[in-house]
Specification:
With 435 residues, this protein is of the alpha+beta class. It is built from 15 helices and eleven strands. The strands form three sheets. It has a five-stranded antiparallel sheet, sandwiched between helices. Strands 7-8-6-11 form a four-stranded antiparallel sheet, sandwiched between helices. α3 packs parallel to α5. It starts with a helix and ends with a helix. 32% of the residues are buried.
Length: 435
């Protein structure tokens, strides 16, 4: 990639990351490190197969640079998207760019999470050792800890909480009070379970009790926490039981890594991976998953028919009015078809001007024929073209029925519906010629 382009991407990336990070180093060395990451990601986006390890390494290096706020993943995704717009292939479009973006950002998130968890556990072990040897008086042990270790506690990027065996909070660090949106004094002396979302509380407290009963060990879980405004976030909790010693009583060290942003990003990535970006409909991947689940649901499948729909004359629409209007037509068709099916049916766009409908069981032959007629009628109202004239849409629909113990593969079922669609299109064309 052109060095000037690399530098520009790195500087813009740093501009997004800097306000959210805890990095204290000068900007230039960090930007140089980001330039190296940009170059590696530029190489990764066009490799076959996709070089996900490079993205995993970038995620880990973000943590090394002290960009430990999960929003760094979102900013990195924006940079990769920008990078792909400036394709290193000298303007040649990157195949499957959206899917590649999803996979690369997911890999960055994986490397980021692994590195942050490793850092968290290292810090936890340091605190555990320090607190075990500190000369403290019962619950004042943290206040008597040596300054270096107290600084680790106070300035850790992750939330840390010390509780007694009954789950009462002894002390918390500033990161936890920030995460909870509460003052230190509001948290001390309360039950840690009261700060966990009610739907996750039993599971959290059960693991806490088991850990205390064992006397030592570690447990990890993801659970929602409650903020002062009663909103909730997600945290990856690591609970470590520290047994009593001659200088300190038993306690539980709880470390919470805020993963709210990461879960939101992962949710969006899953949505992008399973939905068509133009129409918002399920895409081919989700359709395949749906068919696999429905066909493997027992002797009686959960779907009774598959309809294969193809918009007639779509290439001519694109050639005449342009691709932007063509996209508008596809979105219009998607909305009308979706309104024409039952809530239990599924409509997916599997590419171009092709849509697939799965009919939930039961659906008689009569209902199937009526639905085909109804879907064709939904497109009867014309679409207004950029030139102000009406454009009448027409769709060809093929059908294949699903029988009990149907042994066809999913691809065979879609192929049969597609073949029937072409057969019906030829019949209609023949009728039009003879009319």
């Amino acid at each position: 990639m052109d060095p000037l382009c690399t530098r520009l991407l790195a500087e813009n990336w740093y501009g997004r990351l800097a306000p959210t990070g805890s990095a204290t180093a000068a900007a230039e060395p960090i930007i140089l490190a980001l330039e190296s990451m940009v170059d590696r990601l530029a190489d990764a986006v066009t490799t076959e197969p996709l070089a996900l390890q490079a993205a995993i390494d970038v995620g880990a290096e973000l943590v090394t640079l002290d960009f430990t706020d999960p929003v760094a993943i979102r900013h990195t995704g924006a940079m990769i998207d920008d990078l792909m717009q400036r394709s290193p292939a000298h303007g040649v479009p990157i195949p499957d760019a959206r899917q590649r973006l999803v996979e690369l950002v997911g890999a960055v998130g994986t490397g980021y999470a692994q590195a942050l968890r490793s850092r968290t556990l290292d810090g936890q072990e340091l605190l555990r050792r320090a607190m075990s040897v500190a000369q403290a008086n019962t619950w004042q042990m943290l206040r008597d800890i040596d300054l270096r270790l107290r600084l680790v506690f106070d300035h850790a990027a992750v939330a840390i909480c010390v509780c007694d065996p009954d789950g009462l909070v002894i002390d918390v660090n500033p990161a936890l009070t920030t995460m909870f949106g509460r003052d230190v004094d509001d948290v001390r002396g309360t039950a840690i379970g009261d700060s966990i979302h009610v739907d996750d509380r039993d599971r959290f407290e059960s693991q806490y009790r088991e850990l205390v009963a064992a006397g030592s060990g570690r447990a990890t879980l993801e659970a929602r926490y409650l903020r002062a405004d009663r909103e909730h976030g997600w945290a990856a909790w690591t609970l470590t039981s520290v047994p009593a010693s001659t200088s300190s009583p038993a306690y539980v060290l709880s470390i919470g890594e805020d993963i709210t942003e990461r879960r939101a990003v992962n949710h969006q990535l899953r949505r992008l991976a399973l939905h068509d970006h133009l129409t918002g409909l399920p895409n081919r991947a989700q359709l395949i998953d749906h068919l696999a689940s429905a066909l493997n649901s027992g002797d009686t499948p959960m779907i009774s028919a598959v309809l294969y729909c193809d918009l007639n004359g779509f290439k001519q629409i694109n050639d005449t009015y342009g691709h932007s209007f063509g996209d508008t037509v596809l979105r219009t068709v998607a909305v009308r078809l979706r309104r024409g099916i039952a809530p239990t049916d599924l409509l997916a766009r599997i590419g171009g001007d092709e849509f697939v409908v799965t009919l939930a069981t039961p659906a008689s032959d009569r209902r199937t024929r009526d639905l085909i007629d109804h879907l064709q009628d939904t497109l009867a109202s014309p679409v207004i073209t950029p030139r102000g004239g009406p454009l009448h849409l027409c769709i060809s629909i093929g059908c294949t029925r699903i029988s009990n113990n149907d042994e066809r593969s999913i691809e065979a079922i879609l192929h049969d519906a597609d073949i029937d669609m072409y057969r019906r299109r030829r019949e209609i064309a023949a009728e039009d010629r003879s009319a």
